[in-house]
Design a protein that fits this description.
The structure holds three protein chains of three kinds. Chain A is an alpha+beta fold. Chain A has four helices and six strands. The chains are: A alpha+beta, B alpha/beta, C alpha/beta. Chain C: Keywords: ATP-binding, Ligase, Nucleotide-binding, Ubl conjugation pathway.
Chain lengths: 183, 524, 450
């Protein structure tokens, strides 16, 4: 296409660009995340929180389910978007202790699009919907918290009881959960 | 300095140093490499770059043969010569600078030209595992190649001139066990389950926790019963779709193992048969007529053949490699265990047959060990044998080049350049100087008449484009470092393939044009 | 040892260049149309042509050698890494005694010693430590990197350095070509990128293989592979038990030893075989297998493209080479296509003219973006990078918490916000599939400058 290009034409030494100052340019990851963030279409049970509005790469997602086992709970997820976004997925951890078959006590979340099924076409919005779904339909088939999954599978009422107990703040088995009810 | 030696297993210093390549050809490949010795004939940039690609990964030893001394002209393209060696023997200089790359490697040199060695002590070459040569004249090339063919020493001959480079591998016979195919087909035997597998498949309930293999087996069995002609697996798109639909109809939710079974319909069947390459090996005379001198590969191949035909109903030994499948741990591990056990059993049978043959041949039992047989059985579907041709054949009437002539012209820019490089070598032999070294115009004419003569000697009525000959003369013998580095890198890898008996080498001529960044491999 | 000399007469006297000079000083039937055979070509390579090699690893070592012996006299090399034992099977400019030293410095020292006609300047730094003024000085940049992030960064840098004519076309003198090589085992690729003109790194981001990530629940509850056991220790057990009170360091043998032992325990518990020390290292450090030969081939292919671009003697490759020598030797060249919607290279800055930065507010600029027939945006979000290099969100109406925090900016003037003439804003809006760059131009600025 550009046959006429020759290296020797380049002017080096002395000559400099037209624009003022040495403004750093936004990275490709930055451009993409801005697009993702500004087009977030949150379900009414979800909200974002940007502790630093200038930093779009680190933020919180708060999910407050209005139905299902986790109704009245308030769950905070911490998003960290790396410089290789969207080639690599953001790192997402649950900051609220929760009794949930797909979330362990360290806050690891088992959601396929956060790991094995991530691809660059997906957006932050896809993850938000995935997380929200986890609270509506906890999935005992893919457990991270095996005890919780077993209870859900074998005794839904017991599971519901345990969830409520954990959300109110209290022990489920050996584990103590902090209260996370929506005030 | 390096970190203190840890107590952990496997971390010998050498194993650490060669870690990145051992991940490719394994400890056993590395051992073969470290036991090999090669000879480098002629100190050129392409020769030294090839040697570099062998010294770094830790070849056992190398000997450089060159009768000339270092001149200023030599410094421009060869990284393994430097001004401190001006006037000194080239073989010595480049041996020292190459060896310095890796103290594990033994370097040696002789200050003699290929011509001198061939005339005075031609058996010099016979003890090497492989000889690398470059930029010879035609006469020397043919004498050297013939000598090596007779001595059964593989030859890698490299050309690097201007923007052109070629590699010619001359090897009599090369047997490859581990070809490392890019896409390995898993051999699952669903159509012909062995007893242990059949029992397991029939005795296990298909739930959403079991590997897809069990799901597929369940619906394959149903499908098989619907076939009136006794077909064991779907043969075409339509039949595969029938099977897929049958599985999909039974899905309740989106069970992952069912999804995986549907996906696997396309690739799960058909393995375990004798592929064409292996059939040729079984029918090879070398497989049929074993002797005390037979390569162990052929003894194992014959035992394999016996097993397949007489003991396993025409099926290959089971490789015993299972792909990962979504499932709970126990059901997957149980299935994996069944495949692995059967693979061991099959390999043991082949091993015992090997021992029978060794006894018949009065060879010691440890000539073949169990590990090698297991490897051979695992890789049975991909075994291959390469039978090379003599370089000299390219100069005879039966030349395979004839197939490449169309409309009286040598077809393809790469073929033409390869032929022009041969004409260049005859030019060197006949005129004793380099085409285009002083005058380009005059030498184009001379090169053209040589090429024409060579064509007619081969019984070919064809011409070669003037532009190609012009380009060759324009170089005036220039060897460009980057082209040599490209060819040297490729050539080193071909040597490693030959020595480790892993991966498939070229058969037999690789031609590279750096102007167009195109390449081709021809069997000449 | 002779001293590197820019004196043209001395260059031509040096017999080491006899071969190269045939190629550069003789006409030929396959040469590029605008090639002029002359001794100026070698002189240019030896004196004025300045190249940057990024990475002094497997490809970098080869590149420095190849370029030095192809006549280039002025090379710079950047690498932030130090030498390790496992480098020595291919990074041939380093010896055992160099372990722990800077790759860039060591490589430069070796080349400078061996090839007296070449001067290599090392930078023991990260590419991100340098700005535009540094990269500006090079005619061409060659990358031998193993990191996608680094490739994306330098790609973005070179694109941001493009200058445009008034009609929006690229000023070709501002193009710095980027030659990029990559290898993995017996496979590799080399590509030529003319920023703004041909497919860039972002255009073809999907050519990089995705990272292997196993499902977390498999790792936690239904492991089947040795890798699952290793990942479990790495992702879950390490944080839980925090054996050394620090994050996992793949280069610390104690750490790897701990992971190995725990992974082995876990594998035994589940009857899984195949956990080896080498596998543990590979999984923890994401080790990519590497051999000398593939690096040599790919670096040579890159060096040849550099040579063609610098001398114009032949047409450079258009634009992507795939190489593989698992089965025979296979090469394939094709033209990777520029992506029209590429975030990075299809993003020509759009100029917005502002009369007076001290009276024009951010709201005025937003209004202009919405009302002007050229943009017709609905609800734009604006960010920028400030002078200190920090990202700043100017306004974003679609996210509540950010809207609240940035609302006050609307009524501030551009001057008050610290925006300058030529400042680039990143603008996203529902009307456009990707982010765009808007460049502010302050009217009357030139008059003030006089």
């Amino acid at each position: 296409m550009i046959k006429l290009f020759t290296l020797k034409q380049q002017k080096k030494e002395g000559e400099q660009k037209g624009s003022g100052g040495q403004q750093k340019k936004a990275s490709a990851a930055q451009l993409r995340i801005q697009k993702d963030i500004s087009e977030l279409n949150l379900p009414k049970t979800c909200a974002t929180d940007f502790p630093d509005p200038d930093d779009l790469l680190n933020f919180k997602l708060i999910i407050s389910p209005d139905e299902g086992f986790y109704r009245d709970g308030r769950f905070v997820f911490n998003f960290r978007v790396g410089s290789n976004y969207p080639h690599e997925p953001p790192k997402v951890k649950c900051g609220t202790q929760v009794y949930h078959p797909n979330i362990d006590l360290e806050g690891n979340v088992c959601l396929n699009i956060l790991r094995e099924d991530w691809n660059p076409v997906l957006t932050i919005n896809s993850i938000v919907y995935g997380l929200q779904f986890l609270f509506l339909e906890p999935n005992p088939e893919d457990p991270l918290n095996k005890e919780a999954a077993d209870v859900l599978q074998n005794n839904r009422r017991q599971f519901e009881f345990n969830v409520k107990k954990a959300m109110r703040g209290g022990y489920v088995g050996e584990t103590y959960f902090e209260c996370c009810l929506h005030k | 300095m390096s970190s203190p030696a840890p107590k952990s297993p496997e971390l010998s210093d050498k194993s650490k140093k060669y870690d990145r390549q051992i991940r490719l050809w394994g400890e056993h490949g590395q051992t073969l490499l470290e036991a090999a010795t090669v000879c480098l004939v002629n100190v050129t940039a392409v020769g030294c770059e090839t040697a570099k690609g062998l010294v770094l990964p830790g070849i056992g030893g190398f000997t450089v043969a060159d009768g000339s001394t270092v001149k200023e002209e030599d410094l421009g393209n060869n990284f393994f010569l430097d001004p401190t060696y001006l006037g000194k023997p080239k073989a010595f200089a480049c041996m020292q600078l190459l060896q310095e790359l890796n103290p594990d490697v033994n370097g040696d040199y002789v200050e003699e030209s290929a011509d001198y060695i061939l005339a005075n002590r031609p058996n010099f070459f016979d003890s090497f595992d492989l000889v690398i040569a470059s930029n010879l004249n035609e006469k020397t090339l043919l004498v050297l190649a013939d000598r090596l063919w007779d001595a059964n020493v593989p030859l890698i001959y490299c050309r690097s001139l201007g923007m052109m480079g070629t590699i010619r591998l001359q090897i009599r016979e090369h047997c490859i066990v581990e070809a490392h195919p890019d896409n390995r087909q898993f051999d699952l035997r669903l159509e012909h389950p062995f007893d242990a597998l059949r029992q397991h498949l029939d005795g296990t309930e298909v739930t959403n926790k079991v590997p897809w293999l069990l799901v597929l087996h369940k619906y394959l069995s149903i499908w098989q019963k619907q076939q009136t002609d006794g077909t064991l697996s779907p043969r075409n798109y339509k039949e595969k779709n029938q099977l897929r639909e049958a599985i999909r109809d039974e899905m309740k939710a989106d069970e992952e193992n069912y999804e995986e079974a549907i996906k696997a319909v396309n690739t799960a069947f058909g393995a375990g048969q004798i592929p064409l390459g292996l059939k040729a090996i079984f029918e090879d005379d070398a497989c049929d007529q074993l002797s005390k001198k037979s390569n162990v590969f052929w003894i194992m191949a014959k035992a394999l053949k016996h097993f397949v035909i007489h003991e396993n109903k025409g099926h290959l030994p089971l490789p015993g490699v299972l792909p990962d499948m979504t499932a709970n741990t126990d059901s997957y591990i149980a299935l994996q265990h069944i495949y692995r056990q059967q693979a061991m059993q099959d390999a043991d049978q082949v091993y015992h047959k090997c021992q029978d043959y060794l006894k018949q041949l009065t060879l010691p039992a440890d000539t073949i060990d169990k590990r090698s047989v297991r490897l051979l059985c695992r890789e049975a579907a991909g075994l291959s044998v390469l039978r090379g041709t003599r370089v000299a054949e390219e100069y005879e009437k039966s030349s395979r080049l004839l197939a490449l002539v169309e409309d009286n012209e040598l077809q393809g820019n790469l073929t033409a350049f390869n032929f022009a490089l041969r004409a260049y070598e005859r030019f060197l032999s006949e005129y004793g100087n380099i085409p285009g070294e002083c005058t380009v115009e005059q030498d184009i004419g001379r090169l053209k008449s040589i090429a024409g003569k060579m064509m007619s000697d081969l019984g070919m009525h064809a011409t070669i484009s003037d532009d190609v000959l012009h380009e060759i003369c324009r170089y005036g013998g220039a060897e460009l470092h980057a082209v040599s580095a490209f060819i040297g890198g490729c050539a080193a890898q071909e040597v490693i393939k030959v020595i480790t008996k892993q991966y498939k080498p070229i058969d037999n001529t690789f031609i590279y044009n750096a102007i167009t960044t195109k390449s081709v491999t021809l069997k000449l | 040892m002779s001293v590197h000399s820019p004196n043209p007469a001395l260059i031509l006297q040096n017999k080491r260049w006899n071969g190269l000079r045939n190629v550069l000083e003789r006409e030929g039937p396959f040469c590029k149309d605008d090639f002029s055979a002359s001794s100026d070509n070698l002189e240019f390579l030896q004196t004025n042509c300045k190249l940057l090699v990024i990475g002094a690893g497997g490809l970098g070592c080869e590149l420095l050698k190849d370029l030095a012996l192809m006549g280039f006299g002025n090379l710079h090399v950047i690498d932030m890494d130090t030498i390790e034992l496992s480098n020595l099977n291919r990074q041939f400019l380093f010896r055992r005694t160099d372990i722990g030293s800077s790759k860039a410095e060591c490589a430069a020292r070796f080349i400078n010693g061996r090839v007296p006609t070449c001067r290599v300047t090392p930078h023991f730094k990260k590419i991100q430590d340098f700005d535009e003024t540094f990269y500006q000085q090079f005619n061409l940049i060659v990358c031998g990197l193993d990191s996608i992030v680094a490739r994306r960064w330098i790609n973005g840098m070179l694109l941001s350095m493009l200058r445009y004519e008034d009609d929006g076309s690229i000023d070709t003198t501002s193009i710095i070509p980027m030659i990029d090589g990559g290898t993995e085992g017996f496979k590799g690729n080399a590509r030529v990128i003319l920023p703004g003109y041909t497919a860039c790194i972002e255009c073809t981001l999907d050519l990089f293989p995705p990272q292997v990530n196993y499902p977390l629940c498999t790792i936690a509850n239904t492991p089947r592979l040795p890798e699952h056991c290793i990942e479990y220790v790495k992702i879950i057990q390490w944080d839980k038990e925090s054996p050394f009170g620090v994050p996992l360091d793949g280069d610390d043998p104690q750490h790897i030893g701990w992971v190995y032992e725990r992974a082995l325990e876990r594998a035994n518990e589940f009857n899984i075989t195949g956990v080896t020390y080498r596998l543990v290292q590979g999984v923890v450090k994401h080790i990519i297998p590497a051999v000398a030969s593939t690096n040599a081939v790919i670096a040579a292919a890159c060096a040849l493209e550099v040579f063609k671009l610098a001398t114009s003697c032949y047409d450079y490759m258009s634009n992507y080479l795939n190489f593989n020598d698992l089965d025979g030797i296979y090469t394939y060249t094709y033209e990777a296509e520029k992506s029209e919607g590429c975030l990075a290279c299809s993003n020509v800055p759009q100029t917005v003219t502002v009369d007076d930065p001290n009276t024009t507010t951010l709201e005025d600029v937003i209004k202009q973006l919405c009302d002007s027939p050229r943009f017709q945006l609905k609800n734009p979000s604006l960010t920028t990078v400030m002078k200190d290099g920090k990202q700043k969100t100017l306004y974003m109406s679609t996210v509540k918490s950010i809207e609240v925090a940035t609302r006050k900016n609307l009524t501030q003037s551009l001057g008050e916000l610290g925006l300058q003439d030529g400042q680039q804003l990143t603008v996203t809006d529902v009307t456009s599939p990707s982010a765009m760059i808007v460049q502010l131009k302050f009217q009357g600025n030139e008059i003030e400058m006089v």
